[in-house]
Amino acid sequence: MKKIQISPSILSADFSQLGNEIKRLEDAGADMIHVDVMDGHFVPNLTIGPPVIKALKKNSSIIFDVHLMISPVHKYIESFADAGADIITIHPEATEDLASSILKIKKFKKKVGISLNPETKIDVILKFLDQIDLILIMSVNPGFGGQKFMPEVLNKIKDLKKIQLENNLDFDIEIDGGINFDNYKEVIEAGANIIVSGTTIFKSNNGDIKKNIELLKSK
C-alpha cells in the first residue's frame, strides 16, 4: 500500500501571508502544497495565476500540486509549468483533446494529474491510465472551499483502485473536498493515498497544523 500523503490546500490559508503559510506547512510535515487555480469560467470563483505560484516557489522546496480549474486549459499548461508546478492536474472537460494535453504536460517534464468531478465517470480516462501519474477525485463540486463531503464518490475510488491493481498501474489516487477527521479513514480504506484538506488543517485543534496533518496520516 502506498504511503499516505497530505496536500494542504492553500485556499484556506491566510492569503496576506502565503509565503509564511507554505513554510509553516512544510515545517509541519506536509508532503506537498495543493494550489487551486480557478478562472471564474470553468468554476464560479477566481483565485491565483502563474506569477503568484512563481513567487511562492522561489522560496520553497516542497512539491507544488497545482489543480487547474480553468478552460480552455491547454494553452495555459506551459505558463504553469514555467511557474514551478510539479504536478499539473487538469479536467477532461476543460480541454478539446485530452491526449494532447497529457503529452504537453509530459513535454515539460511535469507529473500528469487528471481530475474527475463527482459526476464524471472513470470511463473518460480509462485509455490514458498508463500515462497518468495522479487521479484527483473531487468529493465536492469544484469552485469553493468548505463544502460538505459527498460519500457517493467512495465507490469511484474503490473502482479505480480495483482497476489499478488488476492492471498493475502505479498512479496516485488523490481526494479533495470536505475531508475531515470524521471521514478521512473511509477514503484511505477506499484506496486514496493523497488527501487534500484545507479547512480541517488550518482551523481544527485551534489551528495546530502539525497535529492536524499527523492526525490525517494516522489510520
Please characterize this protein's 3D structure:
Strand 3 (63-69), helix 3 (77-83) and strand 4 form a beta-alpha-beta unit. The protein has 8 helices and 8 strands, in the order E-H-E-H-E-H-E-H-E-E-H-E-H-E-H-H. The longest helix has 13 residues, at 154-166. The chain has helices spanning 18-27, 50-58, 77-83, 98-107, 154-166, 184-190, 199-207, 209-217; strands spanning 5-8, 32-38, 63-69, 87-90, 111-116, 134-138, 172-176, 194-197. It has a single domain (5-217), classed as Aldolase class I (TIM Barrel, Alpha-Beta Barrel). The mean pLDDT is 95. Helix content is 34%, strand content 19%. The protein is of the alpha/beta class and 219 residues long.
Distance between the termini: 13 Å
Q: What general outline do the C-alpha atoms trace?
A: globular
Lateral strand order in the biggest sheet: 1-8-7-6-5-4-3-2
Percentage beta strand: 15-25%
Number of strands: 8
Count of helical segments?
A: 8
Structural class: alpha/beta
**How many independent structural domains?**
1
pLDDT below 50 for ≥5 consecutive residues: which ranges?
A: none
CATH fold-level assignment: TIM Barrel
CATH homologous superfamily - what is it? Aldolase class I
Largest beta-sheet characterization? 8 strands, parallel
* Helix-strand sequence: EHEHEHEHEEHEHEHH
Round the Cα radius of gyration to an integer and report it: 16 Å
Helix fraction bin: 25-40%
Question: Please, what is the average pLDDT?
Answer: 95
The CATH class label is Alpha Beta
Q: What is the annotated CATH architecture?
A: Alpha-Beta Barrel
